[in-house]
Model the fold of this input.
Amino acid sequence: MDLLLFGHPLYERYLAWQITRSTTKTPVHVAIILKETDLLEHKGIEKLLTAILTFRRFKVELVSIYVDILKADQPVKTEIASTLGARLEEYFIDLPSGTGYEIYGLEGEVKGSRQSRDFFVYVSLGFGGRGEITRAVLSILEEVKTGYTRPEEVDEKMLESHLLVKHEPDIMIRSGGQKLSDFLVWQSVYSELYFTDVNWNDVRRIDLLRVIRDFQKRQRRYGK
Done:
């Protein structure tokens, strides 16, 4: 294909055509790792909405988003999480019908939600995988203490049932960097990884289509 078409709407349509005609399925669960600065401006949230709607169009069923809040000061982190939660809820209300979402704060508390079985968006505002696993373990311990669960019943499936996100991501996307974050530590052990140097506010729809097409070309080994 003529390289002049790269970045052109014609190439975007070509990528969409490739995705839809491929015999390989698109990812069912996509995870996106962002920084708080990616979403503090409305442009960043609008980019996120574009990503959500693009993935939905191409048959993704679940999008998990982790917002890494890098500030060390706890009161500042709490304020940022609260501000972002309110902004996201305001924007998510206008998502198409059939779109559900859950927004979690720093301690895993629910900031906003809407239920749907068609398409779902999970957002974690600084609540990482280690915290998620710790909370799951403490919940199981409480069940054992009260006699609801016997110690010999505790296994991997039980732990997974107590996690906030029950599904393993097919692919995890990290924009603007080469490092993963503390997100879905348990669930992502066999996930495909996709790194891009493009900063989130510069991400275009064509970049999102490239992620899907790249996934379709991979041969997943699930740790083998």
Observations:
- The chain is about 40% helix and 20% strand.
- The radius of gyration is 19 Å.
